[in-house]
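__Protein archive entry__

___
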Amino acid sequence: MKHGFVKVAAATPDIRVADVEYNTEQICRLIDETAEEEAKVVVFPELCITGYTCGDLFTQDLLLENAKKGLQKIAIHTGNKDGIFFIGMPLAVDGELYNVAAAVNHGHILGFTTKTFLPNYGEFYEMRQFCAGPKEARMISFDGKMIPFGPQILFVAEEMQSLVIAAEICEDVWSTVPPSIQAAREGAVLIVNCSASDETIGKATYRKNLIEGQSARLLCGYIYANAGEGESTTDVVFGGHNIIAENGTTLAMGQRFVNNVIYTEIYKTSAQ
């Protein structure tokens, strides 16, 4: 972090649907790569620990337990890494299943941001397996520790306290009232989005305009990490369309249909 600029990344790992061990290895590999590139904020896609397209496998306890173990392994892997990492995963809490973005830093799980808006139209049927996140954040027990769980959780960098980060998940930014609006009102200057947005005709342009528009509306940086080709195992196609925007301008955008990592630098105090 130099002169107020922070290097950030959006990363799409190779994944296999429901193969948590393989997916965890690939996520850790990209964590190493982004750490070597000195990225301080790294965002991975929605549900990437298990794969987004698991369907009714999300009802299997074995998959959910393996996802928790995968996150614990990833957390340990970040122990000597100087950065914060956002990873999508399913999380069962009090008998309900939630779609969350886990924030990990220096070996610790900092929080679970929940998905507020669940798509249930066209090719999407998330309400079949998941519950919408709660209206307010609270503390839950995970691996013997109390960890924040809910919407609009703010993450503040100790070494740069003007860098305030909040997460949302895929459909949240496509909704009429994205959670990032309230997060920005509460002080967030960088929004990250763990996403699994499929490809249809014209959607890439719409997606780019959407992310640019949200970063302009909020006067912030916006990191959008999208699921890639490993999810394309059923009747939908995912292209790994990663986008990083700031104040209405795209700073970096990945090539579609290639699992890659994009980097750029964002100014830490975009919001005024």
